[in-house]
Amino acid sequence: MTAPSQDTNLRTEKGEMQDLYMVANVAKDVSEYFKACERCKKLNKPIGRRLGNIIQIQEPGRPWESVHMHWVTGLPPGGDKH
């Protein structure tokens, strides 16, 4: 199964090629191109680990009844540029 972005790219490229050229088996050719493309392979692979399911929180009844914080840690130092 291909990633959604790859499916979209495949359909777009296929449509553009069919508009510009008369090519037999365009879908097959474009599909083979994407399978061989190193950049496509790198961009479409999953990154990181799954963090689990998102849990819906109960809507608070009044302001500040429930406060949630997300901590982002392990980032590289920003240096003087940022």
Question: Could you write a compact summary of the structure shown?
Answer:
With 82 residues, the protein is an all-alpha fold.
What does this protein structure show overall?
- This is Integrase zinc-binding domain-containing protein.
- The protein is mainly alpha-helical and 82 residues long.
- The protein has a domain of 40 residues.
- It is 41% helix and 0% strand.
- The chain contains three helices and no strands.
- Helix 1 packs across helix 2.
- The model has no long low-confidence stretch (mean pLDDT 73).
In percent terms, what proportion of residues is strand? under 5%
Q: Which sequence of SSEs, written as H and E, runs from N to C?
A: HHH
**How many DSSP helices?**
3
For the secondary structure, the number of strands is 0
> How is the main sheet built?
none
Q: What is the typical, i.e. mean, pLDDT? A: 73
Radius of gyration, Cα only, in angstroms? 22 Å
Query: What is the overall silhouette?
Result: elongated
Q: State the share of residues found in helices, binned by percent.
A: 40-55%
Task: Classify the secondary structure makeup into a structural class.
Answer: mainly alpha
Q: Uncertain spans, ≥5 residues at pLDDT below 50?
A: none
How far from one another are the termini? 40 Å
Protein name: Integrase zinc-binding domain-containing protein
